[in-house]
Structure formats: C-alpha cells, structure tokens
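Lecture 7 notes: from sequence to structure.
We start with the chain below.
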Amino acid sequence: MSQFFLRIANYIANELIVKGLANNRAFQRFALRTAGHVDKVKATGVEHSGKLAKEAEKHVGLIGRFMGALQKEVEKDIRKFSRK
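Predicted structure tokens for the same chain:
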C-alpha cells in the first residue's frame, strides 16, 4: 500500500517538475545552448575519427610490410641455424 502512495507522489512531483521546466525560459535557453554544444562536440568527434581512420589505414600497410620483412629475416635465421 505504501508503494502505491509513493508512486502517486512520484508521479505528481514529476509532472510539476517537468511542466515547470518546460515553461521556464531560462531552462529552455540552457537546453538549447547545451544541445548546440553537444552537436558541435559530436561533429568534431566524427571529424577526428575520420582522420584517425585514415591514419590507421596508412599505418596498417606499413605494419604489413614490416611483418613480411621480419618473417623473411626469421626464416633466414632459422635456415642458417638449422644447417649447423
């Protein structure tokens, strides 16, 4: 029974808070500025992630070439030591 009253009190408090904030000009300005900042940060993040992806693609090729050269050197050393 007490949960029922708590739910009613919570519902009424939520309604008062939401309606109060929805009609408050200062809160509306704050919400708009915050949304603008979030959009700007998201756009910057997308831009930087694109740059990072391009850099990673460039380095993947270099790493592949390095690993190929390393494999050849290791194979040479294995052949050299297996002959002795």
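Points to note: The longest helix spans residues 25-83. The chain has one domain: 2-83.
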